[in-house]
TrEMBL record:
SUPFAM superfamilies: L,D-transpeptidase catalytic domain-like (SSF141523). Pathway: Cell wall biogenesis; peptidoglycan biosynthesis. Belongs to the YkuD family. This is L,D-transpeptidase. The keyword Transferase applies. The active site is at H155 (proton donor/acceptor), C171 (nucleophile). One of its GO terms (cellular component) is extracellular region. It holds the Pfam family YkuD. Transmembrane segments: none annotated. Keywords: Cell shape, Cell wall biogenesis/degradation, Glycosyltransferase, Hydrolase, Peptidoglycan synthesis, Signal, Transferase. It comes from the Bacteria.
Amino acid sequence: MRLSRLSLALAVMALLTACNFKGVPEPQVSARDTEYMALIPKAQEDLRYGRYLMDDPTGEAPGTIVVDTKERFLYYVMPNKKVIRYGVAVGDEAYGWTGVSRVARKAEWPDWNPPAEMKARWPHVKHTKGGPDNPLGARALYLYEGNKDTLYRIHGTNEPEKIGLGVSSGCIRMRNIDVIDLYNRTDTNAKVIVR
């Protein structure tokens, strides 16, 4: 009797979850994306941080990006009170950043130029050309407050095993396939809220 109740409860939970979360198809990728991503080590994927279509918990306008640093999720707001939710890695406590900004620029497989403050903390970091060894990964969205570069980015990663953790120097890291999906959906000047 106990086992059948547990089975029934699990079945009901599965049905409810299916109603609230829906997988999002993989985005179109280029030959270069396929080539470079094949060179980045694979990580065990935590399904909590997958890419899902769900009801909008943000209340923001369509096209807005909302990052919940505590829960480690990024929401891209869609029409009809829906969002696409992605798992992210965020800044560790010492380097966390919150605020409102906008996407001023977008780049595919961007070069990485670490800021002076980062070079001072970690002298081993250096300019890295775009590609599989680059910590910015497949895409980057450059965040500005007005016309001033915040030096924070929403970007891919060459460390996919760290999605769901607080490990960056303030940037928002995503799986490369997820940042490609977000990049394809996001307009320049899109509002970004980091909570």
